[in-house]
Write a structure and sequence with these properties.
two-stranded antiparallel ribbon, 8 helices, lipid binding, disulfide bond
């Protein structure tokens, strides 16, 4: 015979929340794997030009998300088992893990908000460097120019864009009119790659942010219920 009354209700609520937390860990892990293997992002972030790798900040963040998702699933299982077994040791360990995860999530959220535009800016800088090298008429190294052209085509075909847009309209129109770098169906004056790159990563950053907010709310309830249940077990006459 274990806890009774309201504490027993909290026990099953905690088990249910932990099951949701375990599922959320699976979702985070799945989303992270999808982001890593998404055709648009992976094809762009694996590009290399003149010994320079495309910015890896986004991929590093995705690798962290994969680790977080795996840890969430382990902690969620620990919480479920601790709640059903009414183990103070397991619940205390579960609470400590949640506090660490919550602190890391808050720190990551603050860092991500402060640097939310850096990923797209880094990739835009990389794109501009390749773009200028592909159009350089004075570039004597033909292999380097061909490499730049190949990288640029991947950008244009993946994002369905062309050039830098309104900031350099003349150069962009020349690119579309006198080279084969841009898809023929794309209007260089309206579909610039700068805007496409920003839109691509902003969409994914918001998806990660919403997922993190939902997980943080679940964690707050879990920390509260785990402490209440732990105190209820300690005060139970059975123990």
């Amino acid at each position: 015979m274990g806890v009774e009354g309201c504490t027993k209700c909290i026990k099953y609520m905690l088990f249910f929340l932990n099951f949701i937390f375990w599922l959320a860990g699976g979702v985070v892990l799945g989303v992270a794997l999808w982001l890593q293997h998404d055709g648009h992002t992976s094809s762009l972030l694996e590009l290399k030009f003149d010994g320079q790798q495309a910015p890896t900040t986004f991929l590093n963040s995705v690798h962290i998300l994969i680790a977080v998702g795996a840890v969430m699933m382990v902690v969620g299982f620990l919480g479920c088992y601790g709640a059903i077994q009414e183990s103070q040791c397991l619940l205390g360990t579960f609470f400590a893990c949640l506090v660490i995860l919550f602190a890391c999530e808050v720190a990551a959220g603050i860092f991500g908000f402060m640097h939310k535009d850096s990923i797209s800016k880094e990739l835009i800088t990389f794109y501009d460097n390749v773009y200028e090298n592909s159009l350089a008429t004075t570039l004597t190294d033909q292999e380097k120019k061909q490499a730049a052209t190949a990288v640029l085509k991947v950008f244009h075909e993946t994002l369905e864009c062309c050039g830098k847009g309104f900031s350099n309209p003349l150069t962009t129109l020349i690119t579309q009119g006198f080279t084969d770098l841009c898809p023929k169906s794309i209007s260089a004056s309206t579909t610039d790659c700068h805007g496409k790159i920003r839109a691509l990563f902003n969409e994914k950053v918001y998806l990660i942010g919403i997922s993190a907010l939902i997980v943080a709310i679940i964690m707050i309830f879990e920390m509260t219920f785990s402490m209440v249940l732990c105190c209820g077990i300690r005060n139970s006459p059975v123990y």
